[in-house]
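S.,

Sequence below, as promised.
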Amino acid sequence: MDRINLVRALVREHGADGVLLTFLPDVRWACGFTGSNGILLVTQSSAHFFSDGRYLLQAAREVSGAEIHITSDNLFEHLASSRLLSNEHILFQSDHILHSTFVQLTSLIPGVIWHPSPDLLTRKVAVKDKDEIGRITEALRITESVFEKILGFIQPGVTEKEIAAEIVYEHLKLGAEKMSFDPVVASGLNGALPHARPSDKKIVPGDLIVLDIGCFLDGYASDMTRTVCVGQPSPEARAVYEVVLKAQNEAIRQARAGMRAKDLDFAARSVIQEAGYGDHFNHSLGHGVGLQIHEWPRISKDAEFEIPAGAVVTIEPGVYIPDSFGVRIKDMVVITEDGCENLSRAVKNLICL
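The prediction came back faster than expected:
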């Protein structure tokens, strides 16, 4: 897919002459560069990628559709000295640039009329092509394999930190580039904290354990959550688990392109509310995943926009009982015109170890 021309089309829609991309995930999406320092200027007639000497060979291998400029100077200074811009109207990613950097940019290239364009590529990036969905799926398969392996490691006396360390190790051993976020390993009463950090707490019989894990592979993220039990759960814990699972299944059943994000959130939230746990579901239903672990669209109770076909989103309802336990189940799905495709294969029945 020629993404440079997709960027040009957006520039035309905004009535501008070009755009300067400075947000690295968007630079990667547009031209393929995976390094840590790069900017991309796209005009109606040309495209120019700027980076430093560390990426001379890497840029030559990766960058597509743009002329490559390698410099030892500040990238904006080199852009200015290149004299590629004069009196044009140029869009810039105002949501991803510091004010001090913008002041520097405008002083270096004073003839340009700069137009702030927040969320410029947000909706384009959200719609994944077949190749992107394949990469996300491959990352997810690694995470699911790690989940299966980690079940044999979890036992009474092991700490949350030890489980988290094993999760990271197994991901890297199976080929992941890095974790997409620090693993959540939350047992017993810690499970009532949706983003609990692994602690020195030891696992004890009867603990529910929330495992929220994911990795990056070839630039794309995976994200999954399962809740397991060591020994037998209490009757309340089992009942809450079934409510969360029912809520997730209902949201997956209803998910489709064109529905409002708030309506998808409500599909799960209403099940939890009817079961009497509405006050204990205290986060949004899900979010987009791709080159970032959290992307648009956010599936929340306040989101009025329609979800596009091709978006990869998480469906992750949860119930958190203070000072007792928590349950969350998360799958990744691709939104389609007539429903959704669930990318997740890991079992969702309550596993008792």
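The domain at 127-342 is CATH 3.90.230.10 (Creatine Amidinohydrolase).

Coffee later?
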